[in-house]
Amino acid sequence: MTPANPQPLAPALIRRTLTYRWVCLGLLFLSGLLAFFTRLAPAVAIPDLQEAFVLNAAELGLLTSLYLWPFALMQPLAGVLTDVIGPRRTVTAFLVVAGVGQVLFACAPTFPVALLGRALTGLGASVLYVGAAKIMVQWFRSSEFGTLTGAWTSVANLGGLSAAAPLMALIILAGWRTSLGGVGLVMLALAVLVYLFVRNSPSERGLPSLADIDGLPQAQVTSQSIPLRECILVVVREPNTWLLGGYAFLLFGTMTMMQGLWAVPYLMDAYGQTQQAANALTLWAIGLIAGCTLWGYMADKIVGSCKGVVLAGAVMYALLWALLAICPVGLPVGMLWVAMFWGGFFASTWIPSYAQLKNSVPSQVVATAMGILNLFFWLGGAVYQQVSGLILAGFPKLDGHTPIAAYQAVFWLCLGSVGLSITLVALSKEHRPAQSTTA
């Protein structure tokens, strides 16, 4: 096979490609940070929201969760749209939707208007990762995809951390409406920057692709588009879509259930901890950020296997649930803190699963594949929160506390779920990305 570009490339063109790709991806990283910020920000403003809209617990739960359902259900369509019309226009349009939704939420005079604003924000945020994934494919090497996915998740989780103490300080200073509305205006400004500066591929700026620079065979760099229907069929016919999707549903469901819902109540009911419970949950978040940063790089540069990292990480993550299921009470405080960090750190080995699926499909349908995989991730989070809540509700409370046996039942469910996810990963196939022919 012949190289994609047999003529030597000017060093200046190579430098421009290697530099400008970070402009494109950096703007999308910032959009991910803002999206995670808006997802978690209402948790800090709960007292203000209850006062503004006179909310009971059920209404408050609806307000905070309404972001996730359009976000999750939009994932397959988000991928298809990104593949068909490109990440630049897709991300621009949906950032506008997210920004308008956030401003509407901040200015809402009534509860129904606030609900509409939250739904629009979640809808607008739904395309941001798949848009970033498409930029990664077009502007970066295949061997960098896992590392970049981990970096994306770490940056996005920094948005979640900034929606805690920093946002609380801002709300005290300026009020919740001004604070959250200001974030919406930033999202609208970012949409303008994405449209002005992001390009779908290096060729749109007259620059060589990474495949050109690396001398990959022409067959590896085709950019011929695939019709909409064919995009979906190619992805759903790939066995790894379902194997890794099932893994994502099971593992991510247990993780979001623990981190986002039951970790603090469990520690309070089982160990009588209050502030210590919040600190332990912070360790879970720190483990998550550290792992997201590490595991993609490990799969790309050190281990050289996405499947190997995902499989080993799931086994290590299962040890957390084995510990909690067997010993739900009586653990030393230090061990509990280690367990919380362990959970976030090893659960985040899901990161290379994106690269594993990406390597299983043609580059023209990568965004569609990422969107469908994202659907499994987020549906798992929603379903496991609902199912675990039903399990705990089935046990009568003792002195106002959920009994330890209820939590133990949930932990056994999680152990079985992660065990099944390990089986699914073991059955999946590893497809290696094309390697460059030049040093």
Please provide a written account of the structure:
This protein is mainly α and 439 residues long. It folds into 2 domains: 11-218, Growth Hormone, Chain: A (Up-down Bundle); 231-427, Growth Hormone, Chain: A. The protein has helices spanning 11-44, 46-53, 57-65, 68-73, 75-85, 87-107, 111-125, 128-139, 145-162, 165-174, 176-197, 210-214, 228-236, 239-271, 275-302, 306-326, 333-347, 351-358, 366-393, 404-427. Helix 1 (11-44) runs parallel beside helix 6 (87-107), helix 1 runs antiparallel to helix 11 (176-197) and helix 14 (239-271) runs parallel beside helix 19. The protein is globular. The model is unreliable at 1-5, 218-223 and 435-439 (pLDDT under 50).
Keywords:
439 residues; Growth Hormone, Chain: A; 2 domains
Report the total helices: 20
Radius of gyration: 22 Å
Given the helix and strand composition, which structural class is it? mainly alpha
Reading the helices and strands in chain order gives: HHHHHHHHHHHHHHHHHHHH
Using the alpha-carbon principal axes, give the shape: globular
The CATH fourth-level homologous superfamily of the largest domain = MFS general substrate transporter like domains
Question: What summary fits the major beta sheet?
Answer: none
Q: What helical percentage do the residues reach? A: over 70%
Q: What CATH architecture of the largest domain do you see?
A: Up-down Bundle
Which regions contain 5 or more consecutive residues with pLDDT less than 50?
A: 1-5, 218-223, 435-439
- What fraction of residues sit in β-strands? under 5%
Integer average pLDDT = 87
Number of strands: 0
**What separation lies between the terminal Cα atoms?**
18 Å
